[in-house]
Amino acid sequence: MQTEKPLFSYPKYWAECFGIAPFLPTTRVEMDALGWDSCDVIIVTGDAYVDHPSFGMAVIGRLLEAQGFRVGIIDQPDWRNKDDFMALGKPNLFFGITAGNMDSMINRYTADKRERSDDAYSPDDEGGRRPDRAVIVYSQRCREAWKDVPIVLGSIEASLRRIAHYDYWSGEVRRSILVDSQADILLYGNAERAISEVAQRLSRGQEVTQVTDIRGTAVLRKDLPEGWTVIDSTRVDRPGKVDPIHNPYDSDEELAAATGGKCSVGRDEDSGEQVLHFVPHRQKIDRTKSVIRLPHYHKVKNDPVLYAHASRALHLETNPGNARALVQRHENIEVWLNPPPIPLTTDEMDDVFGLPFARVPHPKYDGQRIPAYEMIRFSVNIMRGCFGGCTFCSITEHEGRIIQSRSEDSIIREIENIRDKTPGFTGVISDLGGPTANMYRLACKSAEIESACRRLSCVYPGICSNLNTDHNPLISLYRRARDLPGIKKVLIASGLRYDLAVESPEYVEELVTHHVGGYLKIAPEHTEDGPLSKMMKPGMGAYDRFSAMFEKYSKKAGKKQYLIPYFIAAHPGTTENDMVELALWLKRNRFRADQVQTFYPSPMATATAMYHTGRNPLRGLSYKRGEKVSRVRNLNKRRLHKALLRYHDAANWPLIREHLNSSGRADLIGDEEHCLVPRESANRRSAGSKKYRLFETKHTRKNAVGRTRR
To answer: What local confidence, expressed as pLDDT, does residue 259 receive?
Structure first.
């Protein structure tokens, strides 16, 4: 894979003489205390400022500080006017705009589009501290405050809206957020490389309009640059190039000479004799100077098939080793996407996580609780990225599918820092993980194959034979972490990829024996092949194998421990019958899902393309052919799917009975063991009746956290 300039090799900006700030300043008073007359970069964020490597604004701010820049933070500003955006004065280089660690729309609304009253990234969990589509609003206020200051967009909100995208909340296809925000440049994915290059170029006097070629960025262009080969991908179901008709009496050698092809030695299929075969000439195209033209914004807005096609084209260009640039026309402007960023090396990851974070919220929040910080303050992020490729998940679109792992020494140092410096630490590390718990140091066996690969997942429909599934580095890390003085317990709370875990029984035993706090969460997501194929998730066979291992090693360790499986309701490709079968599986296995996830169509996800278009971008697309996908868009049907996941809740029984009666499954209504819900009766209308309690006890015995034991 292509290498990039080492992240920490840039010459320091002159302002490094001011040294390291205890916290990046959020007021002019704090700037004065540091001796600053101005900020070089001001980061505007929708989250409360927590100086911790799990918070994006802190990572980018500390990285730029390490390169000598003075960085200020404007956190959760009042967006209704420009005053808060002028609080730190005019930045010398640019505004960096981020919605925060979450997409602002997902942060503010439930899957049923109801406004949330809380916000885990705000002081005291207070909702309403950020606007809808925060990146756009913040950009507008910054432009009002300082018209001539460049605006650089980042965060997952910008990443997932970098091209025309379906917007679940408005029910329509919106333009690239770069167009709507009128920002100068957008950074997608983990942005350390891109933000460093942008800051360095602007500090040397380069105009932001000239910063157009950095990987992991999107920019607006009036015209395409010269010297690039444009690959037209604006239509589907289009006839291919018609080959010219040649003289049928020409020999292979004559045909090769006439067309620029060549002859290769082969064997005749019938006689086995050695023969020459004509191989047509194919012009080799330089991928580094190739750009794929996606369908125009207005086309994907009005044509579902073209939208699905554009989604497929984008996802095929996500491997940094072979991805090409993309371009999409929006009215009179071109949105140009450079290829994805080159992943950080282990040394670079170590340096990023080794920056001088205070690891606590800014002192101005004294006495206020920030739930997102409380959740991660005793946890350690050991890696980035995910090669699972789940269609409903945004991790791959944002962080990429190349795993970026820290060194064991770096992780151990962070655990020691938590032990020695984090207030309230009691000796328990709450998590060693990341996007997944067990992809640490897993990668393709061949760098050459990895760079050429265009698969969307390394583990679907099965684990790729080229994937290294060795969990020994993770086992070594676990053992070293729990042996540290002052560490009583190291828990694993990140989602476990159980289809990978079963490849290493030693890892499963290590995990179950030492690192499960009574419950382990895993995510089969569904039991039926239809929805699983649209999710790109493994079948239940892998779950059953892992469950057997989990029980075996729990028993061997003398512990009572339980699996907590997570499932999704209303995912594209899911029928009502699929949900009934899932509910029956839950009942047979005595699981009670108290926390139910309904499919949430996040921008740019493949499953969202299915939800919007009713087509499957994972298969061939055309107007006349191609696989169609069932969608659960009706609110009542979404409620039914959710109710079936919570079959044990008496409040859901009327809705479930109505469906079972209308769908010919009335045999599942009754008191028998195979039944899903009881018959309606006067006695059962009271949740406190004896018959209700008997049904509850017999069929859905509940454990302390609302899920039954295995």
So the answer is: 54
